[in-house]
Amino acid sequence: MLHPLTLGADLRERGIGLHVIEQGIDTSTMEGTAMFGMLSVLAELLMLTEIPRRARPPDPPPRPSSAPTVSRASTPNCGVWGGG
User: What region holds the Resolvase/invertase-type recombinase catalytic domain (predicted)?
Assistant: First the structure.
């Protein structure tokens, strides 16, 4: 598969402009070239994050906390917040 940035550079070297009608992108203009580049980078980022997410096994369920709990009855009253 040809990367959109590579495609855009190749077309630009040949003097060919790309006009994407539905998105209103025209690579013969500076704005269109910038937008095409940004969308290409976002598409690559999406591909890089989605493929590994699909390939990896699902995350295991969270384990119950093993931190000790402190009950209010066993905490000495130090009077800082009005006591217990």
Answer: 5-45
Q: Could you read off the pLDDT of 6-37 as tens digits, one per residue?
A: 777 788 888 888 888 888 888 888 998 899 88
Number of domains in the chain: 1
The domain in which residue 21 lies consists of: 4-55
pTM over 0.70: no
Terminal CA-CA length for the chain: 67
Residue 47 CA: distances (Å) to CA of 8, 42, 56, 57, 62: 18, 9, 14, 18, 28
- Residue 1 is which amino acid? M
